[in-house]
Specification:
The chain has about 280 residues and is an alpha+beta fold. The protein has 9 helices and 10 strands. The strands form 2 sheets. Strands 1, 2, 5, 6, 7, 8, 9 and 10 form an 8-stranded antiparallel β-sheet that branches. Strands 3-4 form a two-stranded antiparallel sheet.
């Protein structure tokens, strides 16, 4: 596996305290990105990790093995393997808050397309203090979370799935965050195509809502992804958002064409949302 770590491996790189297994998965994602055809970005500024506390930005910097990530970009699982899964700042959210986050956790057996993907958990869930902004993908930024629990999974094809549960001070705040996700995904096709054009790629992004259920929604994005927040190359991204009380549950998984043929039928997304709302 490649030993170059950059923001394009961000889906799995953010797992803190996950040990050797998580670090291996990080490099698996990076290896996939290095093996894909690179894209020349339009500017020479550093990329930004979408899980850091700095304001989220679209990737604009050099990519590939020659790019050296800053300290802010270095994933905790690699840069600080001894980082605890639960920090003192995270514990400050209170036992009730952590209990609410834990109640939303899914297992590998509950993930979509589990027969083909053969999902496995990377490590125990990590509970951390979120920054001012949480960027789910190139289209969605969530603000105002006071608690954060993350669970990472990896498929038999070494493709990622990540569940992020974000806690808020109250149900109204979580509802506002959910609506921000809806707004970002509503414009995601245009956002993705603009990003593709910026990087000199064909604007082939297609985004469609695949299921809804109360305050729960699912989307599918198919596109030739820009290297940065996503691994590069043709792929399908599956995104789920559910508001449960004062918690916003976000789940996403990727199908990379270079890893395996796409096997998931989004017609199953209604069942996925039902599982996330229970």
């Amino acid at each position: 596996m490649a030993l170059t770590v950059s923001s394009r491996s961000v889906r799995l790189a953010v797992l803190a305290g996950a040990g050797v297994l998580a670090a291996t998965a990080v490099y698996a994602v990076t290896d996939h990105a290095d093996a894909s055809e690179g894209q020349a970005p339009p500017a020479a500024a550093a990329t930004t990790d979408h899980r850091t506390t700095a304001p989220a930005t679209t990737p604009t910097g050099p990519t590939g093995p020659a790019a050296t990530p800053s300290a802010a970009q270095a994933p905790p699982a690699v840069a600080d393997k001894a980082a605890p899964a639960t920090t003192p700042a995270a514990r400050a959210t209170g036992a009730a808050g952590e209990k609410a986050l834990a109640a939303t956790r899914v297992t590998a057996r509950q993930l979509p397309d589990r027969t083909a993907q053969k999902w496995k958990e990377l490590a125990p869930p990590s509970t951390r203090q979120p920054g001012p902004e949480f960027q789910l993908n190139e289209c969605v930024t969530v603000r105002g979370a006071t608690g954060w629990q993350q669970q990472g999974f990896i498929s038999a094809h070494k493709t990622p799935a990540v569940q992020d549960s974000l806690g808020f001070p109250d149900a109204a705040s979580a509802r506002a965050a959910y609506r921000a996700v809806l707004a970002g995904m509503k414009d995601c096709e245009a956002t993705s195509r603009a990003l593709q054009k910026r990087y000199g790629l064909a604007a082939d992004a297609r985004v469609r809502q695949t299921a809804t259920a109360g305050e729960a929604a699912a989307w599918s994005r198919t596109w030739t992804a820009v290297q940065g927040l996503s691994a590069p190359g043709p792929q399908a991204n599956h995104i789920y958002a559910v508001r449960r009380g004062s918690v916003l549950v976000l789940l996403h998984f990727d199908e990379w064409d270079s890893a395996a043929p796409r096997s998931y039928d989004p017609k199953g997304d209604a069942d996925v949302l039902a599982g996330l709302t229970r």
